[in-house]
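Hi V.,

You were right to ask for the full record rather than a summary. Here it is.
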Amino acid sequence: MHRSFALLFLVLPLAAQPGGELFLQKIQPVLVRDCQGCHGPTQALSKLDVSSREGLLQGGTRGPALLPGQADQSPLLHVLEGRNGLQMPPGGPKQKLPPETIAAFREWIAVGAVWPTRPAEANWAYKDEDLWALRPVLPFDPAKSIDAFLKPAPRADRRTLIRRVSFDLTGLPPTPEEVGAFLADQSPQAWDKLIDRLLASPRYGERFGRHWLDVVRYADTSGYSNDFERPNAWRYRDYVIRSFNQDKPYDQFIREQIAGDELYPGNPEALIATGFLRAGPWEHTAMSVEAVTRQLFLDDVAHNTVSTFLGLTLGCAKCHDHKFDPIPTKDYYRVQAIFASTEFARPKLPFLPTENTADLPSGAAQMRTLYDRTLARMKEFRQNTANPDEYEEFKLFQKHSQLYKESLNRFEPLAFAVSSGPLDGQTDGGPALKYPPSAEYRPAPVHILPGGSIQSPAEAVTPGVLSALEKAGQYPAPQIPNTVAGRRSAFARWIADPRNPLTARVIVNRIWQSHFGEGIAGDPSNFGKMGKKPTNPELLDWLAGALVQNGWRIKPIHRLILQSAAYQSTNFQPRRLEAETLRDSLLAVSGELNLEAGGTGVFPQINEDVARQPQHRMGSLAPAYAPSPLRRQRNRRTIYTFQQRSLPDPLIEVFNGPSLDLSCERREASTVPTQAFGLLNSQFTNDLALAMAARLEKEAPTLDARLLRAFQLAFSRPAQPAELQAAKRHFNRMLAFHKTNPPPAKAKPKPLVHKITSELTGQTSEFVQAEDPAPYEPNLHPSDVGPATRALSDVTLMLLNANEFVYVY
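Predicted structure:
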């Protein structure tokens, strides 16, 4: 090497050496993506390994591939340019690298072909304001309050406040009786008593549990092409709701979800809690490569655990050192190594007294009927499948039988969980994968994967945590054991320690967002450089200190926020109801909402066009969507509906429901025409408007009284005289219409015909999807009531579509 290069390397950190940043941004990704598959440690064709600088300098059968400082003489550049009849990557002109990439290689070689590996550690060049979340939390001052950090504003009226806080804490509108009682209570403690009542309601856990399930991506299916059911995932959903209702200390909540099986052996709640680690989409089939699907899980669980609890975007360090935050690639894979011994488990676990098992016997019997009926059809076809159409129908029933068999586990006392190493006879790799138990179990070693490619493993790593918290926050890194068990325990303790500067900040910011629509730090899952800086960092730290001071309990933080003048002010930003809250509110004011808590997911009434669409499953079709047969089941709170990744409820989807595949840190609130169509024209909303009209007729004796009650139910206030007159005029117009226009008769169910193209012959076959054998309890139909009820439902439909119903102020 030329002496000038040698001297330069002695005085400059690796990332600051000439060509260092060029290598990280342009050169290394190309070597990993386009070269290491054939010329790497596992398959060095022509004896050439391009995974390291030493490998390029040594070269292969054609000699050294790299001559630092001598671009024109380096064979590596020759093959990239296609000189001497040899081109890499192979494949002709279409596969040749772009000219700008080849130019980057020329420049990199010319300045010495430096090969930096960990610039984030070698060159700690971060602005202090970008490391705010890693610094220690400011000391908590109990003499202060939230309003000490904010400017005062006028207080909103009491009707506005009870509606605001009821939606915030329960996700439901206050009843007219609740509004009346609050207005009548003129004591100084009225507001505090209201907060305490709402926090003590079982509806609170359902409301705040929904926020948590957004972040962890809860679903009852696995996603991808088969979207297999996760039949026991509902127990994790109910664990979350119970935890918030019980005001479980947040540090315990963390430890249970990350390492409940290790830290609390024999505690069924803690075992159920580990379903958090499996919440993301994942699939393994006979066509999958086990190493690939396992790596997908490790990538997912490492990134989302850090994102959920620490608010950092760890996934950016998968392929290279994080471009913005002090997270080197090595840290990424050290965190991943924490989960290298984590295996999927579905152990037997008796149902808890706190779990709702009321519908399990009937649900299991209904599913068994579907399964047995499908097996009988398969038996018929086994006798003669020579006809191509019959063979395709046989495959259809074969697929249905597999899905029904897995769904039967929904009603069995099993936990959707994990274990450290495989559990004897209880390891669960999914419907198509079972790992045999082994006394010789050893977790696979974890290597740094340049570019994220499992085909080019580099340095092996041991379990560890994020080094930046020790460097920037003076929070010591623990020793994570390299044993099968104990890795997740140490990691969970490190996250849940009050000295961790991120943990308390992240959760109080999420709580603040639940009440104001936006967090103090605007990107709740990204406290790094690219996330929005906190608008009031001192307030954020004060809330974090208050959380720890109150034993990590979340309900006291709600009280502090709700008792503040900031929350009760007229400056409150209006927000549209979240999709689930909107659906639940429609059910509530119509009198149709069933507040039964917990249990297996129910199947709500959804748009019929969507429900009747074919659902493709690898090589065949899934059974058609069927709503739950009983109204009380269909009309449960939305959090208890079956969350299918490949078939979200259209009403929830159109009103910006969360993605079931990606963590949702904050709900969006777009406004699109399909929202108006869905709310005004959908069968679901029209059915509920009719149900609300029937409710009003039962609860009030006259038209005026019914209309006044309708406004109280929908808007939590009495109607203004002009509004009452407008409603009466609309009622009278519609009454005249309905007296001369009888409603259509109840429609009979049409056979559901689906088509599928054969994988073998390319021919299209038609099938009639089997009907659900359970008797269906229909909703109230216009033909069941008279013209006056139908006219009143036209009025209630308008109220349910009003902005005042859909927004909270």
